[in-house]
Amino acid sequence: MRQGIIIAIILAAVTTAFAGDTKKLPRPLPPLPQAVLDAKTIYVDNQGTDARLTARANAEIKQWGRLTVIDDRTKADVTLVISTQLEGTNDLGDKYGTITMQLFIPHDDIPQFSSTLEDGIRFMERDVTKSIKLLRKRIEDQVAAAAGSGATGSGATGSGTTTSK
Question: Which of 39, 63, 129, 136 has the greatest number of CB atoms lying within 10 Å of its CB?
Fold first, then answer.
């Protein structure tokens, strides 16, 4: 009897010790809609005040080679919206804020991809590069998975949001 109680206490202690180590697995992102996978043209809409962000986005997209940047939003297959928000100044006097990039398909107000990064203002161009690379990875991974399964596309819609600090 006493031995059973000791074993129960040990099991409870071990279970409790390991319970704190369990990590929540990230939810898988929903697939991007076929309209994003099939897109050939993109319009970059920089709603901030720093033109360098548009130039960086255009350069990254051009280097990728999958999409062609065009100047007419109405003719674009997808639109990439860049917005920035100044959050404050740190103890060293450096300004910091967030940069959000969202990808939209025409006639849909729901972003199909979203990336929000918080960083120093002087690093915003680097953050544009990170966000474009995240989008590129999502698209390429989904296309590769579809090719591997023989699927022609999901036809599904859904946004995926990525947030980093």
Answer: 39
Q: Which of 114, 106, 38, 101 is nearest to 72 (CA)?
A: 106
Q: Does the predicted TM-score (pTM) go above 0.85?
A: no
The number of beta carbons lying within 10 Å of the beta carbon of residue 2 is 6
> What is the distance between the alpha carbons of residues 79 and 93, in angstroms, rounded to a whole number?
35
Question: What is the C-alpha to C-alpha distance for residues 113 and 79, in angstroms, rounded to an integer?
Answer: 11
Strand ordering across the sheet containing 41-46: 68-69, 41-46, 78-89, 95-104, 113-120, 160-164
Condensed to tens digits (0 to 9), the pLDDT of residues 135-150 reads 999 999 999 998 887 7
Say if CB 121 and CB 102 are below 8 A apart. Answer: no
State the chain's maximal CA–CA distance in angstroms.
80
Cβ atoms within 10 Å of 67's Cβ, excluding its own: 20
